[in-house]
Amino acid sequence: MSESALSGHTGLHGLAGQSNLTNSQLLIWLGQAINPDSPLYNMAMRFDISTAIDVERFRKALGDIVRQNDAMRSVIEVVDEVPQQRVLAYEDIALQILDLSAEQDREARCNREIEKRTGQQIDLSRRNFDTVLIRLEPARYVWFFNQHHLFTDIRSIELLFTAVSDRYLEYHSPDTATSGSVGPEPPQFAAYRTMVNETQGRAEETAPESQSGPVSLYHREGGFRQTPAIRVEKTLSGMRTDKLGGLAKAPGFETLSRDLSLFNILVTAFCAYLYRISDHEEITIGCPVHNRGTMALKHTMGLFIEMFPLGVQVDPDDTFQSLHDKVAQASFKHLRLATSSSSLIDAVRGYNVVVNYITAKFGDFASAPCDTTWLHNNHIDPQHDLRFQIMDLAGSGDLTLCFDINRKLMEPERRAMA
Questions:
Q1: HEC string of 361-413?
Q2: What is the pLDDT of residues 281-312, one digit of tens each?
Q3: Would you say 289 and 218 are in contact if contact means Cβ atoms under 8 Å apart?
Q4: DSSP 258-315
Q5: pTM for this predicted structure
């Protein structure tokens, strides 16, 4: 679908009124429809598990979780260019097993397979995820899991990982393995979707509005409408982590939580950087919120995050402290106004820069050591020129900073300098 095709639905709002997708889902679907050959919404994860895996137990555990959660069995049907989501009946998973343990170049083969699958399109009319279990050594496996963002977010993948791990351990018990009991049914995404679709119109009346337009990064207008991107990544550890953590506890910087304090500090530095490379004094950044305000929502698989603008006025004579105070005030307003289902489907045009602060606790798998990697799919939303991703997926306190840069924004030499 082209953006001009929206006119037949009286714009985005008209399309939203005909579809059963939430606003967040509709924006992702539209981005994918405009860029049908791009894997920009693939959320691909690599789990390196240091233990021998019983393949049949793993298949049954994963199958149980897919069967129990409607977000894992949802597909998209498009009728007259209007997307509708439908939940399929459960069918046994034909889990693909790739045994590379006898190959000399197994590490390279594994990496190539994962890179290939990360960049492959997911056919949302059939299934919303792709997965494979790769055997590298008798006690070393890689679980690759890739789900379309339309049906997941990082919390949802964390729930999936934990549920499969727990269920795998339960199947180790003879009683569980023979009884077929899978425990209580978890909350379903359909209930949330029905609720937000009934309240979306009222919520939009009080949603935060963007304060300014896109930032002209390096004095280029942007709006490239291209998805290929490059990632520049840096993990903070040791002395840098300690100093950053110390600043987050200092008077004038400490706030409600460590994460919010770190978010404000890093966004302050990012706003100063944006001001330096653009000369924009009014800066608007898109910031996702997790949107899981109840215990039930915190345990529901599906896409819940919503994007809201955070606006900051940068003055030439600002100090880091004074700019931080503005960011802290803006972030409180952002969190207060960012209510469930109130994201504006038109607001995405108001910003081309995004900050995403992501924390999770991917720990061991079935009591065995496991390293978790969120794989970059080498693409970016077409309306985004720069995304600043701040991640701690292990709950360790060490932050990984990722700059995802639209390839059309800068020449290779300037990307390296940035």
A1: CCCCECCECEEEEEECCCECCCCCCEEEEEEECCCCCCCEEEEEEECCCCCHH
A2: 999 999 999 889 899 999 999 999 998 899 99
A3: no
A4: HHHHHHHHHHHHHHHHHHHHH--SEEEEEEEE----SHHHHT--S---EEEEEEEEPP
A5: 0.91
The answer to whether residues 1 and 79 touch, using CB atoms and an 8 Å cutoff, is no
Half-sphere exposure of residue 237: CA atoms within 13 angstroms, side-chain side: 5
| Structure tokens that stand for 284 in this block | 């608007």
Q: What is the pLDDT of residues 141-156, one digit of tens each?
A: 999 999 999 999 999 9
- Give the span between the Cα atoms of 143 and 205, in whole angstroms: 44
Provide the 8-state DSSP code for 228.
B
Joined together, the tokens standing for residue 12 give: 């985005």
Q: Tell me what pLDDT residue 155 has.
A: 96
- Helices 154-170/55-68 angle, 10° precision: 130
CB 370 within 8 A of CB 362: yes
Structural contact between residues 143 and 47, judged by C-beta atoms closer than 8 angstroms: yes
Q: Are 389 and 358 in contact (CB under 8 A)?
A: yes
* Separation CA 269–CA 271 (nearest Å): 6
Residue 272's alpha-carbon distances to 36, 276, 314, in angstroms, are 36, 6, 8
- Give the E-state strand segments of 107-161 in sequence order: 129-137, 140-148
Decide: 276 and 125 in contact? Cβ < 8 Å: no
Count CB-CB contacts under 10 A for residue 230. 17
Match 């390196």 to its residue by tokens.
Answer: 48
How big is the CA angle at 235 (ends 232 and 237), to the nearest 5 degrees?
160
Residue with token string 């006690």: 139
Token readout for 292 is 């899981």
Contacts 24+ apart (CB under 8 A), 242-251: 244/399, 245/397
pLDDT tens sequence across 103-160: 999 999 999 999 999 999 999 999 999 999 999 999 999 999 999 999 999 999 999 9
- Other C-beta atoms within 10 Å of 391: how many? 19
